[in-house]
Design a protein that fits this description.
Helix content is about 45%, strand content about 20%. It is built from 9 helices and 9 strands. It has a 9-stranded mixed β-sheet, sandwiched between helices. The longest helix is centred in the last third of the chain and has 30 residues. The chain starts with a helix and ends with a strand.
């Protein structure tokens, strides 16, 4: 009975894929960055100045008018930081990795402050590498890597990524279909003798890949219309998710990585983010 229920659930998923065969369209609606809150450690200006300069470089804004710099003493707790965000209501939060946690933790993910902000606020976060002076900090971001993990729900990701593209920049978008999930579905299908397994494998894989491809195709066409000064490249593959994205980022060599921290169910999705954060410690991340 349990096996029958498993097969039913897999077949329901199999069937739902084909019901979504209609063209997936990207809606261009870039965010309006009227207020940027930059959280900096309470240290001399000599230390905080590079943080502001790198923020302006990534934002492609020569003037500091939208920047609100807020110094934080080492004793500042996460609740106080959360209240600051509520008070300022910024469109974007900027901070260094492991803010207030010391340099000894700079290569261990994003840090507790970032995780707390993600869990309690919907505001996008630009996470700068630590220390800023030793990182790749170009005056203008030329290549942006956008991880399109949810083709049906990544309009915001593509809009934010394109907003950070200066004129002449390249926006690289990539989607990976999870190979392990696909194989689990196929194992359930193989237990049904009435189905041609090879036909099902070929058809299912093709439709999964085409679904993401259709969305990315429309992203490119739309951005060519609204942002003709930006080059858009996109790709789709089936692979182990974390390893696939790590390999793609290494090959792309971007100056900024953009990814969604919430999965399709709006639950915190730390797997990909943690893996990338550990591997690419010298790159800024835009977390949505």
């Amino acid at each position: 009975m349990a096996a029958i229920k498993l097969m039913d659930s897999r077949l329901d998923l199999f069937e739902s894929i084909f019901k979504r065969a209609q063209r997936i369209r990207f809606e261009y609606s870039p965010p309006n960055l009227t207020s940027v809150l930059v959280l900096v450690p309470d240290q001399p200006d000599l230390t905080t100045t590079p943080i502001i300069e790198q923020t302006l470089g990534i934002l492609n804004r020569p003037k500091a008018s939208p920047i609100i710099a807020q110094s934080l003493p080492n004793t500042t707790d996460e609740l106080s930081i959360s209240n600051l965000v509520l008070d300022h209501a910024p469109d974007l939060i900027v901070l260094q990795r492991h803010l207030l946690q010391g340099e000894h933790a700079w290569n261990r993910g994003f840090g507790g402050v970032v995780q707390s902000l993600i869990q309690h606020h919907a505001t996008p976060i630009l996470v700068l590498p630590t220390p800023v002076n030793d990182a790749r900090a170009p005056s203008t971001v030329r290549t942006i890597a956008g991880i399109v993990d949810q083709p049906l729900n990544n309009h915001d990701l593509v809009n934010w990524a394109s907003t950070f593209c200066a004129s002449g920049a390249t926006l690289c978008l990539h989607h990976i279909e999870a190979e392990d999930q696909f194989e689990r579905i196929m194992k359930a299908i193989e237990r049904i003798p009435e189905l041609n397994t090879e036909t099902a494998r070929t058809t299912l894989k093709s439709e999964l890949m085409q679904e993401a491809q259709r969305f990315l195709d429309h992203c490119q066409l739309t951005l060519e219309q609204y942002r003709p000064d930006v080059t858009v490249q996109h790709s789709v593959e089936m692979a182990p998710v974390q390893h696939g994205y790590l390999t793609w980022i290494t090959q792309t060599q971007p100056e900024l990585i953009v990814l969604d921290m919430l999965d399709a169910t709006k639950a915190l999705n730390r797997g990909i983010a943690d893996a990338l954060a550990m591997q690419f410690t010298d790159l800024p991340f835009l977390l949505l």
